[in-house]
Design a protein that fits this description.
heterodimer; A: 149 residues; mainly alpha; 5 helices; B: 223 residues; 76% helix; 0% strand
Chain lengths: 149, 223
């Protein structure tokens, strides 16, 4: 019985890690853009929490010091699976961007003026705006709860 | 202890401290030479600690995340004389164009420029650690007291504020990237891509990741 519990736990921790590992490389524009992706993965697919809980966690994450994206990852990980979950989420969200930044830092001069990279980024940027706008709608639905008189 | 006071090269008090540690094993060691090797390693160690502590401090006091952390990081860089202004601008440029939080991105890059991968790791850990500690504490308290009236009231007020903050982020990101208000006032192609993506995300069940990928490819053809 105990063994089953532990292995279930491990697979959940791995799942948490993989979700944030996958989200991390596309979190352009800081934490807000990843909100719709988080909703999709964690609320709709995995059903680890409902929309309201998610909004609570996101609100709390933005209110404490530190980067919003990392904060919400840690918080969600903690909510789903305690301290181990928090650590898995944190490592998952940090490693990909860490590696990407190291590569970029060492190649900075050659990519700065590369036309194709700039064009790709230019295509991605408006979508980041849309992502953040979708986050407004999702957040608004659960937080602007009072009916106007 | 007694003998070190009379060691020929340990006249000064500062040197005496180094001799005290090394000399206590072998009194005949050339105190000054050893001290220099020791000092070099120590300086490196001190820089490691300095990087870790500085970024821990930045992580701890940076409310709001993202762009609002940049002035704090800039100040520390200036105080420590880590980078020139030009270098710091480059760091921000790369941090902003790559995925991930700007704060930890720039921390990683500054650390990298100071001491390669070791520096990058320390800076990244330093800036992330406060988040982990604070949220572990806060999370525990929050789940324990989540049904109390006061906690509910806090969230009741907090969530609309965060919603407003996200609206602000939309506007800022739009302007900062020249999608609106840039050289062409309205960058038509970007706006079309943005509106299309917005509609797709709201109306279809398409995964946002694919929309981002698609927009990157579209960018290659459009721009």
């Amino acid at each position: 019985m105990n063994k089953i519990n532990i292995s279930l736990n491990v697979s959940k921790i791995v799942e948490i890690f993989l979700i944030f590992f996958k989200i991390s490389p596309v979190t352009f524009g800081g934490g807000f853009a990843m909100i719709p992706i988080l909703e999709k993965e964690i609320v709709e697919k995995k059903k680890w929490m409902d929309h309201k809980k998610m909004a609570d966690i996101l609100a709390a994450s933005q209110s404490v010091p530190g980067a919003g994206g990392v904060n919400s990852a840690i918080f969600i990980g903690y909510h789903v699976n305690g301290i181990a979950g928090a650590l898995a989420a944190m490592i998952g969200i940090v490693i990909p961007t860490f590696v990407i930044i190291l590569v970029l830092a060492s190649l900075f001069n050659s990519i700065q003026d590369n036309h194709y990279i700039q064009a790709t980024l230019k295509g991605i940027r408006p979508v980041i705006v849309s992502l953040i706008a979708v986050a407004v709608i999702k957040m608004g639905k659960v937080s602007l709860v009072d009916k106007m008189a | 202890m007694r003998d070190f006071y009379h060691h020929p090269q340990c006249v000064f008090k500062t040197e005496y401290r180094v001799c005290d540690i090394i000399g206590s094993r072998d009194r005949d060691i050339d105190c000054k030479g050893q001290g220099e090797i020791f000092g070099k390693e120590r300086r490196r160690m001190m820089q490691y600690i300095d990087i870790l502590v500085t970024f821990f401090k930045i992580g701890l006091i940076s409310f709001g995340g993202g762009y609002s952390m940049l002035p704090i990081i800039g100040k520390e860089v200036q105080v420590h004389q880590w980078l020139s202004d030009r270098q710091f601008t480059d760091v921000i440029a790369v941090s902003a164009m790559s995925p991930g939080p700007i704060a930890s991105n720039s921390a990683t890059m500054i650390g990298y420029s100071l001491d390669n991968v070791a520096g990058a790791l320390l800076a990244c850990i330093g800036v992330t650690l406060p988040s982990l500690i604070i949220i572990l504490i806060l999370g525990k308290l929050l789940f324990k007291y989540q049904d109390y009236g006061l906690v509910k009231a806090v969230f009741y007020g907090l969530k609309p504020t965060i919603t407003a903050l996200i609206i602000y982020a939309v506007i800022k990101f739009t302007v900062a990237n020249g999608i609106i208000g840039g050289q062409n006032i309205v960058d038509v192609k970007s706006v079309i891509v943005g509106v299309l993506a917005f509609g797709l995300m709201l109306k279809t069940k398409a995964h946002p990741l694919y929309i981002i990928l698609g927009s990157g490819i579209a960018g290659l053809f459009l721009f």
